Each structure stands twice: as structure tokens, then as C-alpha cells.
Amino acid sequence: MGGAVSASFKWYDFVYFIDTLVYLFILIFKTKWLDTKAFSKKFVPVVMAASVALFFLNLAFAETDRPDY
Predict the structure, then answer these.
(1) CA-CA distance, 22 to 33, in Å (whole number)?
(2) pLDDT of 49 strictly over 90
(3) According to the UniProt entry, what is the EC number of this protein (predicted)?
(4) Dihedral (CA of 27, 9, 13, 62) sign
């Protein structure tokens, strides 16, 4: 399996992970940019409900595109 995995990687695959490195850099070195103010108590449940709804919408689209039967 090691040979197959290493053969499937290309030299430009690191580009897919650059955003993770940028976020990590910002989190570690640029803490003054981050706002430490807490969100309102009404905002957090709305965002969570919207994210769950988008997840299930994406799941529904995936099932209609590729049904499993």
C-alpha cells in the first residue's frame, strides 16, 4: 500500500494544504488580529442550525445524484 499511496501524490498536492498552514500561522503568531469578544447567545444556535441544515442538504443532493440501492 505504501507504494501505491506515494505513487498517487503529485508535486503540486501540497497546495491543497497551504490554507491549513496559513490558519495555523495566524493562530500562533497573530493573536492580535483575532477578536476575543464572545458571540451573542442568539447567534451561536443559529449558526449551528444553519450548518446542520447545510450538511443535510448536501447529503440529500449526494443521495439523489448517487442512490445506494
Answers:
(1) 13
(2) yes
(3) 2.7.8.-
(4) negative
> What is the total count of domains within the chain?
1
Residue where the block lists cell 498536492: 13
Query: Whole-angstrom Cα distance, residue 18 to residue 22?
Result: 6
DSSP 32: G
Domain enclosing residue 42, as ranges: 2-65
CA 47 to chain CA mean position, Å? 15
User: What is the band of 10 on the pLDDT scale with cuts at 50, 70, 90?
Assistant: confident
Q: Model pTM greater than 0.70? A: no
